[in-house]
Design a protein that fits this description.
Elements (H helix, E strand, L loop, with lengths): L2 E10 L4 E4 L7 E4 L5 E5 L12 E5 L7 E8 L16 H14 L3 E10 L4 E3 L2 E15 L2 E13 L8 E5 L5 E5 L13 E3 L6 H9 L5 H7 L15 E3 L5
Antiparallel strand pairs: 1-2, 1-7, 3-6, 4-5, 6-10, 7-8, 7-9, 9-10, 11-12, 13-14
Helix pairs in contact: 2-3
Length: about 240
């Protein structure tokens, strides 16, 4: 006998907000576009079908995944509602998704599914950051309190400049080595920060950007002179530059 357990979760701001989809959709459409590009090669070619001239296809890295599903936000619990899920009023879900869209920050899409039998377990979990590309909703005919909706998401890739450091090889040669990327930070970046006792621009830069390299940007954005950097008082509100 095969048993299927499944749940979809949407969260925002590093899980500070979120919810489980109360009614699982009948299906989730996942599109993984390729990014191959075709070219026309003129000339004689290599003489075989595999090396002939004419149109060729160059395979590139795959495109961003696209996810689409439809379901309902029910006003009352019923047999179709996921067991144990916390149920909110339908318009609460609508308001939350619209709020997330307005921030222009990605959400996290998590789909948990376990397909297994007595001898084998197949895991089909998915967890990716994603942008909300579209959100269409309407009241259900005959059940005015229920909301039907369709949600379209697109995989989001966190990007930032990587640090490089010089390292010395055993033969004494110095080489520039790119550092591995850090853990993606899904927290929403605040626009301002109120200083507390002991704060420095370097500490603030490291807290919000992961290193001290943005201290100069904070200083410039707030019009702080070099002579003032050691005299910043608690309670001062600083503007923070956006990430990236």
């Amino acid at each position: 006998m095969t048993v299927t357990e499944h749940g979809i979760y949407l969260s925002f701001n590093n899980q500070a907000e979120g919810f489980q989809i109360p009614v699982n959709p009948e299906s989730i459409e996942v599109r993984e576009p390729g990014k191959g590009k075709t070219y026309d090669i003129v000339g004689k070619g290599g003489g075989t079908e595999e090396t002939r001239a004419g149109e060729i296809n160059v395979i590139k890295n795959p495109g961003l995944r696209e996810i689409k599903f439809s379901s309902i936000f029910p006003a009352q619990k019923g047999p179709y509602v996921v067991k144990g899920v916390q149920l909110f009023p339908p318009m609460w879900y609508v308001g939350m998704i619209r709020k997330w869209m307005s921030t222009k920050y990605p959400i996290r899409f998590v789909s948990i599914g376990h397909d297994y039998d007595a001898a084998k377990k197949k895991n089909s979990d998915m967890s990716i950051p994603a942008s909300i590309e579209s959100f269409d909703w309407k009241e259900v005919a005959g059940a005015p309190d229920d909301i039907e909706y369709t949600l379209s998401l697109k995989e989001y890739v966190f990007y930032s400049a990587r640090l490089s450091k010089f390292q010395t090889r055993p033969n004494g040669e110095k080489v520039l080595v790119q550092q591995p990327p850090g853990q993606p930070d899904e927290r929403v970046m605040p626009e301002t920060y109120t200083m507390v006792s002991g704060d420095t621009l370097n500490q603030i830069s490291k807290r919000f950007y992961g290193d001290t390299h943005r201290a100069r940007d904070i200083q410039k954005l707030n019009g702080i002179k070099d002579s003032e950097t050691r005299q910043l008082l608690p309670g001062r509100v600083l503007k923070l530059p956006p990430k990236g």
